[in-house]
Each structure stands twice: as C-alpha cells, then as structure tokens.
C-alpha cells in the first residue's frame, strides 16, 4: 500500500468544547487574585498534595529511572502512533469492541450521542474524563435530551454547583468543605438537612445519592488513562469506586480517548502504574484500577465502544518541539507545584487543561492565536519540569510557544529600532546618555505602556559601562 | 474519506520520518526482589485495610459478623463458617468473600482477575464489606512482578484499600461507592 497524503493536521474547531476562555489570562487572573477564599482553598489543597506526593515519590529509589523510561516510552509511542492505533483497533475489535474515529469534538459528540440514542436511554452515568470535558460532551448530550450524570465526587460538586472544573485531578479543588456542604444542601435531591461539613459525611451523602442511579442506568461514558495496543486493554485509574460502577454495571460502555493515550505493550504499564498514582494523588496506588479488553461474556458491559479522538492532537504532533505536550498522563503534579496556578486557580486559564501543562497544551490544540496569553502564564521557574513524571520540559515549551504567539506591531517596531541602535556604536552611546537624562521613568508612554503595566522600568545607572571603561 | 483515514493521514503528515527512540529500562525490573510480607501488611494497614494472618479463614469470616454473604462459585467451601447466611444476588449482600490472583507488597495492592473463586467484577463491588483471601505465594514485590504474572485478556481489578476519595481538600477519606471495609486474610497454605 502506498502512503497517500490525506490532509493536514488540524486544530480543534471553535464553537464547541472547553479549550478557549472568554477573556485572556491576565484579565481572568486579575479577578481570581482578588478572591481571598479561593487563594486560601488552593494554598491548603496544593500544599497537602505536594507533601503527600513528595513522601511517596521519595520511597522509590528508582523514581528518576522510571521517569526516564516513561518519557522515552511516550516519545516512542508518538513516533509509532499510526501503527499502534491500527493495532489497538484490531485488538479491541477482535475482543468484541467497536472502534470509532472522531476527527474533532463535533464528530465525537455526534458519535456518542448517536450511540446513546440507539440504546433508547435518556440518561448516562459518567466517569470523570478530561477528553469528554474537552469536547463539551455533556452540553451536546443535554442538547439531545440525554442527561449526563457525573459520578466522580469532585465532578458531581462541579455539576451540582453549575460550576466549571478548575483542576485536572480534582475539578472542585477551588471549593472547601463548607462550600461543598452548601452546594449539597442546595442542589442534592433528598439530602439529609442535618448534613455536616465533615468530609466522610459529605462522601457518604454522595454514596447514597448516586447508588440508585448506578443501579438503574444501563449506559456509561468513560475516558481512559491508557490503552494497550498489544492487547487491546483499556485502563482506568480511580479512587471512589464510581469508575468500577460505571465500567461494570451498565449494558453499554462508551469510552472516549485521545489518540495519544495509547501505549505500545502490556509491559509498559509497569512504568506508568508506578508513576501516575505517586505523582497524581500522592498515593502508592490509587484505590481502584480497572482493566478490560473488549467484552467479557457474563461479566460487565456486553456492548463496548471506543471513540478515538483527534481534536487538535495531530496539530500538536506536527510541531517537533511542541509535541512533547502530548506525553502528558494527566497527573496534575505540575499544577500542584506551580506558583502561578496556586494563586490564580484553574478557571483563569479558560481551558479544561489549566496550569503549566494547560499553558502549553491548550494553545497548541486550538492554535496559538486562540490562546495567545497562556504561554505567558508562567514565571518559568521550572518546578513543573521537576515534578512531571514523564519529564515534559514545560519551561522550554512555554518559551517555544511565546515565540510562535502573535506579537503587537509596536513591540516589533521597538525591537527593530533597538536592534538597529545596538548595531551602531555611536548611536548606542547617544541613546544611553538620553536614557540617563530621562531620569527615573517608571512607566512608558503609549503605545509601549503595555510593557510597563505589570513591571517597573529599570532605573538607568549614574554612569554607563562604556563611560566607566573609557575613564580607566 | 473516512475519519479513520483522515486521522491516520494527519498523524503520518505530522510525524514525517520521526525516529523511534530507545527506551531505557534502568528501573528495578520484575524478579529483582523477593516479596516481603511485612511490607504488604504495613502498606495494607496504612491504607485502612484490616489484615488477618491465619489459615483459618472460616473463623475470620465468622468473627466479622458478615450478615448476608455472597461468594463466587469457585470459593473453597471450607472458608465458609457454619451457619453463614448465603445469598446468590450481590445486590442483596452485606459482604462478599473472594480469593485473589496477585498481591503487590510495595503498593499494598490486591488484584482480582475474574477467576471462578474471584467472581464477576460486580460481585466484589456492591457489598459494603469485602473479605479477600490472599495466599502468601501470590504476593509479589512490586508492580512489574504483578504485570508479569497477570493475563491482560481477563477483566482485572486492582484494589488498594477500601473505596476512598481525595476530592475534598485533597485529603484521603475512606468510604465512597465501593466497599467501605476491606479485610485481607493473608493465608500461608505452604507450611502446615
């Protein structure tokens, strides 16, 4: 078979899904920073998870070797992506599953909606899934008259509170226990009016509320943490047991998965199952991990559909530097160590992928122009690179994307003028003396005032280096 | 053009002739360490499972006052205490008694693979108490050892402690949708 050219990699379409915010990061961050309660909640939660994760990472003497293996495995996966996806399709199909391919969010939403419609059901239970958040599946299902019920506790808090997720792992990280109690009292049908804000009591309330829904809903939608090409095995890591409920009780299971989630071999899970829980929830292992291969007669859903999603991933893959962002295993360790995320929270990023990884992934999925401010949502301190279990060099990616982002015309003119001046020694000397005469200027006049909106202009020295050198 | 061909075409166009890197596997591989039962017990207890070290499984089950008990068809009948109230439908059960396939010492994890003595996945999910019997020869040192032993074509459930969540202020709280109590019987059948 000859390889024919079938189309250029495309970014995620506008008007669907949750990859673009309503306003640029600086404006959104400005509002978030004014919320004292939000900053207290985030500081407490990220501090807790950093301590837990640090302790269990330190237990493994081969953590760095595991990171190196994880990084190389992901790079090798990307390089072999076409054959691995074809192999995954073949194995899942052979095991009784049906594989669908979705070029973008609209197509994925259409596929899932049609599959649910074919069952005749008006409600689906959902396991927490970043991919379905990304494509706005809940909105699409609701439009088709199908009620999606989020069953992960944090997703449930977000859904009941008519809120937006603000963290990859814990979408309700911006809420503390008192706020969660208020949401439950207000929005959870049949809740005990004497509900306290004790976390165990809040968890028990969710258990009671969802149990009947689990038992009476025959269609589930999930994401996937990994899919093994060699065997066709799908893997979902979770904590609460809501995942096990959704993956085993219904008759029909629909799994939506980004094409980058495939791993080559069964053995490769020995790396990722050590990296992900320790980096993510700070546990040696999360309470429950489910693995299934197609359909098992007499055990679990007898109808299994796997939807493979592009939605901008091939555009990310086309950038030799930027494609590293596709290595992400969605642990959220980079969010938890980021000084910017800790202060602004996730909503300021506008995308379902917040924090450092979001700042490099979202602009690439949408095209940099649609998320141009995100590569600047970082101090480039490098903590995210150190925390990443698959060694994604996020700081380098941020700089790379800053160079691709559109720059204002005035900035280009100013830079060109500076370059010309620095190329001509006499001109440069005169410019330095002029700067000295201008004295203590804190802010630049328009159109350059944007540059000094968030920083002071440095004070010119009393004597330039060249003057000092000439005196010696 | 199908979306399948479109996506695969895009991937090939994006990759060009990207070389496939070597994967360094300098981490501790399967078979590099012996399983340490003390580590397993320590890790299970740390994640709020209760551990019993005995071959007398029926006595442990009786002592837990399991109420309506469901057992997969392959469970050894000698594990059942006399007079146990057996039910056949997991929806009606207060407790479930299963065997296991593998246990991972380093992470405190038990894996069920749907064999006749472990049952369908839902059997060990709905009851509030899960009593799980692990033979000492099923215990391995770490995750790579478990991966090497498991059969990926079977439905697998990895269990590390009772159902829990970290969704409220990122602290672990036990007891959400899965069994809220996990009792592990670590049974040594190799020596009398």
UniProtKB/TrEMBL annotation, chain A:
Region (Disordered) residue spans: 1-22
Biological process according to GO: lactate metabolic process
GO molecular function term, any single one: metal ion binding
Keywords for the protein's UniProt record, in alphabetical order: 4Fe-4S, Electron transport, Iron, Iron-sulfur, Metal-binding, Repeat, Transport
UniProt-listed SUPFAM superfamilies: 4Fe-4S ferredoxins, NagB/RpiA/CoA transferase-like
Domain 4Fe-4S ferredoxin-type: 325-392
Stretches assigned to the Lactate utilization protein B C-terminal domain: 403-472
Chain segments annotated as transmembrane: none
LUD domain: residues covered: 85-295
InterPro entries, alphabetized: 4Fe4S_Fe-S-bd, 4Fe4S_Fe_S_CS, FTHF_cligase-like_sf, Helical_ferredxn, LUD_dom, LutB/LldF, LutB_C, NagB/RpiA_transferase-like
Protein's name in the database: L-lactate dehydrogenase complex protein LldF
Species of origin: Pseudosporangium ferrugineum
Higher taxonomy: Bacteria, Bacillati, Actinomycetota, Actinomycetes, Micromonosporales
From TrEMBL, chain B:
Gene3D superfamilies: NagB/RpiA/CoA transferase-like
Residues in LUD domain copies: 92-186
Annotated InterPro entries: FTHF_cligase-like_sf (IPR024185), LUD_dom (IPR003741), NagB/RpiA_transferase-like (IPR037171)
A Pfam family hit: LUD_dom
Recorded superkingdom: Bacteria
SUPFAM superfamilies, alphabetized: NagB/RpiA/CoA transferase-like (SSF100950)
Protein name per UniProt: L-lactate dehydrogenase complex protein LldG
Organism name: Pseudosporangium ferrugineum
Lineage, opening ranks: Bacteria, Bacillati, Actinomycetota, Actinomycetes, Micromonosporales
């Amino acid at each position: 078979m000859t390889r024919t050219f079938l189309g250029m990699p495309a970014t995620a379409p506008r008007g669907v899904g949750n990859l673009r915010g309503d306003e640029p990061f600086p404006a959104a961050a400005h509002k978030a920073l004014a919320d004292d309660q939000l900053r207290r909640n985030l500081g407490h939660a990220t501090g807790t998870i950093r301590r837990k994760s640090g302790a269990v990472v330190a237990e493994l003497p081969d953590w760095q070797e595991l990171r190196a293996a994880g990084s190389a495995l992901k790079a090798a996966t990307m390089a072999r992506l076409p054959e691995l996806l074809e192999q995954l399709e073949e194995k899942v199909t052979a095991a009784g599953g049906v594989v669908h391919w979705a070029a973008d969010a609209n197509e994925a939403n259409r596929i899932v909606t049609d599959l649910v419609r074919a069952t005749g059901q008006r409600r689906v239970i959902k396991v927490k899934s970043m991919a379905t958040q990304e494509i706005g599946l809940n909105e699409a299902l609701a439009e088709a008259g199908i009620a999606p019920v989020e069953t992960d506790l944090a997703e449930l808090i977000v859904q009941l509170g008519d809120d937006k997720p603000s963290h990859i792992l814990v979408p309700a990280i911006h809420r503390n226990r008192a706020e969660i109690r208020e949401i439950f009292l207000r929005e959870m049908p049949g809740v005990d009016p004497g509900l306290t804000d004790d976390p165990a009591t809040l968890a028990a309330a969710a258990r009671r509320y969802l149990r009947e829904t689990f038992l009476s809903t025959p269609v589930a939608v999930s994401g996937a943490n990994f899919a093994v090409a060699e065997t066709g095995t799908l893997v979902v890591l979770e904590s609460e047991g809501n995942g096990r409920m959704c993956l085993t009780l219904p008759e029909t299971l629909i799994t939506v998965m980004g094409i980058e989630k495939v791993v080559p071999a069964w053995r490769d899970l020995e790396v990722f199952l050590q990296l992900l829980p320790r980096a993510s929830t700070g546990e040696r292992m999360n309470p429950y991990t489910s693995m299934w291969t197609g359909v098992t007669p007499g055990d679990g859903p007898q109808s299994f559909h796997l939807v493979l999603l592009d939605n901008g991933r091939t555009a990310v893959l086309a950038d030799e530097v930027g494609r590293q962002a596709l290595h992400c295993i969605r642990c959220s360790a980079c969010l938890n160590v980021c000084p910017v995320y800790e202060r602004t929270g996730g909503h300021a990023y506008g995308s379902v992928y917040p924090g450092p990884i979001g700042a490099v992934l979202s602009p690439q999925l949408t095209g940099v122009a649609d998320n141009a401010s995100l590569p600047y949502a970082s101090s480039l301190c490098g903590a995210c690179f150190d925390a990443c279990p698959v060694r994604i060099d996020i700081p380098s990616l941020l700089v790379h994307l800053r160079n691709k982002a559109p720059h204002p015309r005035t900035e280009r003119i100013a830079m060109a003028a500076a370059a010309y001046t620095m190329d001509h020694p006499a001109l440069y000397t005169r410019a330095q003396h002029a700067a000295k005469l201008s004295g203590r200027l804190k802010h630049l006049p328009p159109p350059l005032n944007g540059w000094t909106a968030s920083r002071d202009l440095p004070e010119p020295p009393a004597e330039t280096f060249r003057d000092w050198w000439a005196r010696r | 053009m199908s979306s399948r061909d479109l996506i695969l075409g895009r991937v090939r166009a994006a990759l060009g002739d990207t070389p496939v890197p070597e994967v360094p596997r300098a981490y501790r591989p399967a078979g590099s360490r012996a399983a340490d039962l003390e580590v397993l017990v320590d890790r299970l207890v740390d994640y709020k499972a209760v551990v019993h070290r005995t071959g007398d499984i029926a006595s442990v089950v009786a002592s837990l006052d399991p109420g309506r008990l469901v057992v997969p068809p392959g469970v050894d009948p000698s594990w059942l205490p006399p007079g146990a109230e057996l039910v056949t439908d997991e929806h009606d059960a207060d407790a479930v008694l299963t065997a296991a396939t593998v246990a991972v010492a380093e992470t405190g994890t038990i894996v069920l693979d749907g064999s006749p003595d472990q049952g369908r996945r839902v059997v060990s999910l709905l009851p509030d108490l899960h009593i799980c019997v692990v033979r000492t020869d099923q215990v391995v040192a770490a995750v790579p050892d478990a991966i090497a032993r498991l059969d990926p074509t079977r439905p697998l459930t990895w269990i590390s402690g009772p159902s829990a969540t970290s969704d409220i202020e990122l602290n672990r709280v036990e007891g959400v949708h899965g069994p809220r109590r996990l009792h592990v019987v670590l049974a040594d059948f190799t020596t009398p």
